[in-house]
Write a structure and sequence with these properties.
Keywords: Phosphoprotein, Two-component regulatory system. The chain is α/β, with parallel strands linked by helices. It is about 45% helix and about 20% strand. Helix 2 packs parallel to helix 3.
Length: about 120
């Protein structure tokens, strides 16, 4: 089972997105701030990270930079998942090391399609 680390500070979003992804066959790990996200990524080595950008303690941009700077986690794809819909935010997320960018509210079909494409997993079961 593919493991996704969801780094999201909003508890309602974290719970809802986790449940939706679990129903699609993913195991979901969670973190409530950027520092915890970096730590959990190092400890758990998930297959993919969904990273909110507006996080407490350490924002998603810096958390992504730290994940990408660590040889143990550098190859893990990070997808920015945020309500920030400006082109400049997208560009900044990609510059920080994110491989893709998706906006909230989450379009589950689109997000799962991106996740599966990044993980090389064909169609949803």
């Amino acid at each position: 089972m593919r493991r996704i680390l969801l780094v999201e500070d909003n508890e309602m979003n974290r719970d809802a997105i986790s449940r939706l992804l679990e129903r699609r066959g993913f195991a979901v790990l969670t973190a409530a701030d950027g520092a915890e996200g970096v730590r959990r990524c190092r400890e758990e080595l998930p297959d993919l990270v969904l990273m909110d950008l507006g996080l407490p303690v350490l924002d998603g941009f810096e958390a992504t930079r730290r994940i990408k700077a660590d040889p143990a986690t550098a190859a893990i794809p990070v997808v920015a998942l945020t309500a920030r819909a400006l082109t400049s935010d997208r560009d900044a997320a990609l510059a920080a090391g994110c491989v893709d960018y998706d906006i909230k509210p989450v379009d589950l079909a689109r997000l799962v399609g991106k996740i599966r494409a990044l993980l090389g997993d064909g169609e949803a079961p």
